[in-house]
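ingest -> validate -> predict -> emit
validate: passed (alphabet ok, no gaps, 136 aa)
predict: started
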Amino acid sequence: MGADLPDYYFRVRENGAAVFRVDTENRQRRIEMDQIAIINIKNGEVKPHGDRSLSDADLAEIETWMSNRMALLAQRDIDDIHRAVDYLNITTQWVQSKATDDQLEDVTDALLLAMHDLRSLLVRKKADRLLKDAAE
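emit:
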């Protein structure tokens, strides 16, 4: 079992992770997890836990995890946006085919404001990109 486990475990938290060193090489052959650091993914900060000092191997593993985690979060962000497009299409179909007057009264203003806000930002960002491309 020990050979199958990684040397480090990252317990994901809101803004990063708690980092543990995994140990199975003990007399009881139990899995022991020793916390070695706290990571803040937003600012890249790595704080050793307690009065520990992190080895080069620890830091290399943490840097690799942080890089992989940031890539995963970026991928999730764009996936969420693609889902939002699907939800907008599903909402449009619902409005057209199933929504009652009371349901529409309940959501229309909120949807119109959110869509207006989104449209305004998208148009502005598109114009900025077109102007930037024209300048280059």
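The mean pLDDT is 94.
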